[in-house]
Amino acid sequence: QVQLVESGGGSVQAGGSLRLSCAASGYYNYDMSWYRQAPGKEREFVSRIDSHSRTTYSDSVMGRFTISRANAKNTVYLQMNSLQPEHKAMYYCKLDLYGIWGQGTQVTVSS
C-alpha cells in the first residue's frame, strides 16, 4: 500500500516562505499533485508535476509557488513564497494515478 507523508507546514508571517515535502513510500514517477483546503471551503487544486517534471499551477498561485520533484528521494516539493493570510489551509499531496492522498500539513499565515 502506497503511503504519502507531507511535512514542512507551519506558521509564518505574511511575506514569508515555506517548503512543503511529500514523501512516497516507494518509487512512483507518476503525476503528483498538491491540493489545499481552507476552513469551510472545498479542497482545491494547487499544482501538479508529471513524470517528465512538466508543471501546472492554479491561477491563484502562478508565479508564487513552485512544484518540483526529487525522484531519487521519492519526494515532491512545493516551494511557497510571498505567503499571504488567504493561503492558510491544510495542504495535501496526491498520487494521481491511484487517487491516494497524504494526511495533510497545516499552513498558517498571519498578517
What is the topological layout?
Elements: E1 4-7, E2 10-13, E3 18-24, E4 32-37, E5 44-49, E6 55-57, E7 65-70, E8 75-80, E9 89-95, E10 100-101, E11 105-110
Question: How would you describe the overall organization of this protein?
Answer:
The chain is about 0% helix and about 50% strand. The protein has strands at about 5, 10-15, 20-25, 30-35, 45-50, 55, 65-70, 75-80, 90-95, 100, 105-110. Strands 2, 4, 5, 6, 9, 10 and 11 form a seven-stranded mixed beta sheet that branches. Strands 1-3-8-7 form a four-stranded antiparallel beta sheet, with no helix packed on it. The protein starts with a strand and ends with a strand. The model has no long low-confidence stretch (mean pLDDT about 95).
Question: Which features would summarize this protein structure in a list?
Answer:
seven-stranded mixed beta sheet, 111 residues, globular, mainly beta
Order of helices and strands: EEEEEEEEEEE
Shape: globular
Number of strands: 11
Helix percentage: under 10%
Radius of gyration: 13 Å
> Count the helices. How many?
0
Short summary of the structure?
With 111 residues, the protein is mostly beta strands. It has strands at residues 4-7, 10-13, 18-24, 32-37, 44-49, 55-57, 65-70, 75-80, 89-95, 100-101, 105-110. It is built from no helices and eleven strands.
